Amino acid sequence: MLEKYLKNRLKEKKILLMTHIVLGYPSFEEGFQIVESMVEAGVDLMELQIPFSEPIADGPVILRANQSALANGVTVKKCLEFAGDVAKKFPIPFLVMTYYNILFQYGLDRFAGVMAKNDIKGAIVPDLPPEEGKEYLDAMAGHDRCPIFIFSPTTPLERMKYIASHGNGFIYCVARKGVTGADTDFSSDLHSYLARCRQATNLPLALGFGVKDKNDIDFLTGQVDIAVIGTQTIRLVEKEGVGSVGPFISGLR
Amino acid sequence: MLNRGYYDGFGGAYLPEILVATFDELEKVFLEAKNDPDFWQNYENLMSTYSCRPTPITFAENLSRYFGGPRIYIKREDLNHTGAHKANNVMGQGLLVKRMNKTRVIAETGAGQHGVATATMAAKFGFDCTIYMGEVDVERQRPNVFWMERLGAEVIPVKEGTRILKDAINEAFRDWVTHMDTTHYVLGTACGPHPFPEMVTYFQSIIGKEARKQMMESQGRLPTRIYACVGGGSNALGIFSGFLHDPAVELVGVEAGGKGLDTGEHASRLCSEDAAVGVAQGYKTYFLQNHEGQMKETHSIAAGLDYVGVSPILSHLKETGRVRFEAATDDEVVAATALTIRKEGVIPALESAHAFAQAFREASKLSHDDIILINQSGRGDKDIFTVADAFNDPKWQQFIIEKAKKYHA
């Protein structure tokens, strides 16, 4: 279902945009406004991060957003309600992104069930390789949700194929080593990596980590199907407020 | 990865994809080393010439008489170079770093023991070295920071999260996902993704191998009970691993009871109701967490035990019942430290004193025919600022006040 939506959308646009927010940061009210302006500015899908106390794959900006949300009393329960609200209100697909312990404590089948009930299309769980994910994969399949898996520049072709065989919807390709939010050098070095990703799977490819402006999106157009803007909009909201999000997103394509 | 390092459902390797290849390489090099008979021999040679191995077993004659029960013996890991069992793991991983041709090491540290040990190893082997240390720990362990910097390491205070050990581990992982081509992460305890629990236990097993041999040689028999403190669990697994297949030997792991298990201010994962099985920092084990999976703040008088998780191998040994787990409170630990110093003239680290406190609590219930062995994982005299604070020593405080005045003058 998600894959089909993305492929249809790609008939109209050369590259799709996926954006990211940390739920409850700066607050749920502002989060709702951010989602609204992102959808109005043409974002094609969104990942909603449920805060976790140990976000090991995230850099300083998203890490602090996680901590701040938790310090303000944000709960998993509230995050799932919010996700359900925006999924009902806005006509684009929403995914949850969080770390495995959040799903594990909630109960994997129960979590996938709530996702289905709230029309959350899929999940990105960066600390769960497919080898550790049997119960998760069963739960997601049972509720017809998409497990989104990750490729990295250090992943060999054979392993990419193995990962893709468990993925659904699309594959999230990490642009470089390191954590979220640092700069990425968008240069020809990426070509051979992306060619390998493409060779491994027919699923749409998203590329994230360090994507921050129109130049980056222009570079990626034609090479991947989805560009992921993560940290950059959090920085922008911190510096210039919620109102700056719409114009920023509109200016990317 | 050849296997995923499970111990009856605990452990595993919950890795971000970017690190999978690095862990594959680490596991491969570790297995090659383990299967190379020369490797362990080289390791023992290194530890006998650079550290003080084999460390002796000391008969605690006065404590034995004082409690009137069993004969009490102490395994003296405090006599290792840099003052704790941490050296065993660090030097072993240093040999693996050479095999991998990497040039830089990073490590987390809580109390600073593992940081100092890693910085020492890096100085000896000529590696660049970065140590991540929670800001709270940097403040309470300045002398160790001083030595790490003298040894050539860069010490980075971690200002995120609760600013203690677990946050230092997260930051070290963040460094590693960026620099794994040149860098090895010297994880300090038997936690984290496979192969770390197995690998750290392998290097620490030198404690148990020696202790078993020493008990047989000197006493002609094995101890009745063995006590070890449990933070991440590396010293406990080190000594226990020599006796796991001796069912008559009772193994007791002692966690940080902090201000008491009912106060919530402790670091007891295996004998409090506040912990549950979860997945964080790349592995599955008991974590101190809330019902939604967010990690809790922990407390211990001993920074080295102040950690939310515990070795998956120990979680497994708890479930099988092979190891009994207990908790000692901060107050009991200070009393046990004072008694041990006065009676035996040895100074256990506050971490190690947890094992002493539990042994003392149980000693009078054992008979003269029994033998107990306590693992003194580290020395306390090196942590004079912390220990003096724990004793609330007025003359020491006055000295510090005078010293501060001189710096202001």
What does this structure look like?
The complex is a heterodimer of chains A (253) and B (409). Chain A is of the alpha/beta class and 253 residues long. Chain A has one domain (2-243): Aldolase class I (TIM Barrel, Alpha-Beta Barrel). Chain A is built from 12 helices and 8 strands. In chain A, helix 6 runs parallel beside helix 7 (134-142) and helix 8 (157-166) crosses helix 9. The longest helix of chain A is centred in the N-terminal third of the chain and has 14 residues, at 76-89. The model of chain A has no long low-confidence stretch (mean pLDDT 96). Chain B has 2 domains: 6-48 and 85-196, Rossmann fold (3-Layer(aba) Sandwich), CATH 3.40.50; 52-83 and 206-390, Rossmann fold (3-Layer(aba) Sandwich). Chain B has helices spanning 17-34, 37-49, 61-67, 86-100, 113-125, 135-140, 142-150, 165-179, 196-219, 234-240, 312-320, 330-344, 350-363, 384-391, 394-408; strands at residues 6-7, 10-11, 57-59, 71-76, 104-109, 128-134, 154-158, 183-185, 225-229, 250-258, 275-280, 283-288, 323-329, 371-376. Chain B has a 6-stranded mixed beta sheet, sandwiched between helices. Chain B has a 4-stranded parallel beta sheet with strand order 7-6-5-8, with helices on both faces. The mean pLDDT of chain B is 96.
Topology overview:
The complex is a heterodimer of chains A (253) and B (409).
Chain A (H helix, E strand, L loop, with lengths): L1 H11 L3 E7 L5 H13 L4 E5 L10 H12 L4 H14 L4 E4 L2 H7 L1 H10 L4 E3 L9 H9 L3 E6 L5 H10 L4 E4 L14 H12 L4 E4 L5 H7 L5 E4 L1 H10 L4 H6 L3
Parallel strand pairs in A: 1-2, 1-8, 2-3, 3-4, 4-5, 5-6, 6-7, 7-8
Chain B lengths: L5 E2 L2 E2 L5 H18 L2 H13 L7 E3 L1 H7 L3 E6 L9 H15 L3 E6 L3 H13 L2 E7 H6 L1 H9 L3 E5 L6 H15 L3 E3 L10 H24 L5 E5 L4 H7 L9 E9 L16 E6 L2 E6 L23 H9 L2 E7 H15 L5 H14 L7 E6 L7 H8 L2 H15 L1
Helix pairs in contact in B: 4-5, 4-9, 5-7, 9-10, 12-13
